UniProtKB/TrEMBL annotation:
<dbReference type="Pfam" id="PF05050">
    <property type="entry name" value="Methyltransf_21"/>
</dbReference>
<keyword id="KW-1133">Transmembrane helix</keyword>
<dbReference type="InterPro" id="IPR052514">
    <property type="entry name" value="SAM-dependent_MTase"/>
</dbReference>
<feature type="transmembrane region" description="Helical">
    <location>
        <begin position="6"/>
        <end position="22"/>
    </location>
</feature>
<feature type="domain" description="Methyltransferase FkbM">
    <location>
        <begin position="120"/>
        <end position="278"/>
    </location>
</feature>
<keyword id="KW-0472">Membrane</keyword>
<dbReference type="InterPro" id="IPR006342">
    <property type="entry name" value="FkbM_mtfrase"/>
</dbReference>
<dbReference type="InterPro" id="IPR029063">
    <property type="entry name" value="SAM-dependent_MTases_sf"/>
</dbReference>
<protein>
    <submittedName>
        <fullName>Uncharacterized protein LOC111111278</fullName>
    </submittedName>
</protein>
<keyword id="KW-0812">Transmembrane</keyword>
């Protein structure tokens, strides 16, 4: 009888341990982020309101293609095979460049003030993030796609930039929910967020969303912040979850893809939201339908990098 009770107790303890490990995601390459832990050099993800460190994504794979960025500085970068990503990866492999005009503008602003933090929303494989981290500014790169995050982390490691970077593996939105990610053939850079729905596609990618405001739980934004945002028409929804962030952080510049919002209510919301915090668009006129694909919003005293 005592032997049976002992076996029962051991079984209960074993299954309790298994439940605990699953509950804390220890069996899925994640461990809970503890208050006081450094964020530097880590991939962090928020799941059901808790922050975790993802240790399993930062490992180079056979489909990580090593290339070199040749812009403001020289940085190694892992991209995709051109059979998967023809545009962004293809151009970096061929020329070592991507959106060099925008990178140059951001680079010059950050170079003028080493205390500025660069927040890269929709980082993709990290052309912006790696360039700014190599410059020496602190960088927070945010991306929802695990294949992007893995490449970005491998690039961070190979360039020894762990003390300058951290990576957030979530989508940004205005509510906490699960969303799926849509992708275009041969264009990983066109990955977009869509609402969850019934789908017979077993390859659908599902990710938890966070709010911009949630970043305040992780980071101490004492200095100013420069933001680049490229989330494929989801920009307005990202800003709807950013009110506390902008109220508590000195955002000095926002570079944003604006093409999908020209002449729309979402565009008007974006402009009015940013203007409330002193950020004005650098454009030649007030007619949003004529604005360029990407628009930079700055505070009047911000050096624009021209």
């Amino acid at each position: 009888m005592k032997f049976s009770s002992r076996i029962f107790s051991i079984a209960i303890s074993f299954f309790g341990l298994i439940y605990f490990l699953f509950h804390t995601n220890c069996l899925h390459g994640k461990r809970k982020f503890q208050t006081g832990d450094s964020t530097n050099g880590k991939i962090l993800t928020n799941k059901n309101g808790d922050w975790y460190i993802e240790d399993d994504l930062c490992k180079p794979r056979d489909d990580f293609v090593r290339a070199q960025l040749k812009m403001e500085n020289s940085v190694d970068i892992f991209v995709y095979p051109t059979s998967i990503d023809k545009w962004l990866s293809g151009r970096i492999i061929r020329e070592g460049k991507w959106e060099e005009d925008h990178i140059q503008k951001i680079y010059r602003i950050l170079k003028s003030d080493p205390s500025l933090i660069f927040l890269d929303i929709g980082a993709n494989v990290g052309a912006f993030s790696l360039t700014m981290a190599e410059l020496g500014n602190q960088v927070i790169a945010v991306d929802a796609l695990s294949d992007n995050v893995g490449r970005l982390c491998a690039s961070m490691t190979i360039n020894n930039l762990q003390d300058k970077m951290s990576i957030i593996h979530n989508a940004l939105s205005y509510i906490h929910e699960k969303v799926s990610l849509g992708k275009f053939h041969l264009n990983v850079g066109g990955t977009f967020v869509k609402q969850m729905g019934v789908s017979d596609n077993s390859d659908v990618i599902v990710i938890d969303t966070i709010l911009f405001d949630d970043l305040l739980d992780l980071y101490d934004f004492k200095g100013g912040v420069v933001i680049k945002m490229d989330v494929e028409s989801f920009e307005a929804n990202v800003l709807r979850g950013a009110r506390n962030f902008f109220q508590n952080v000195n955002v000095v510049c926002v570079l944003m893809e604006f093409m999908a919002h020209r002449g729309k209510d979402s565009g008007q919301f974006i402009v009015e939201f940013l203007q409330k915090f002193g950020l004005m668009p650098i454009v030649s006129n007030s007619n949003q339908t004529t604005w360029p694909m990407d628009v930079m919003f700055t505070k009047p005293n911000t050096r624009r990098g021209h």
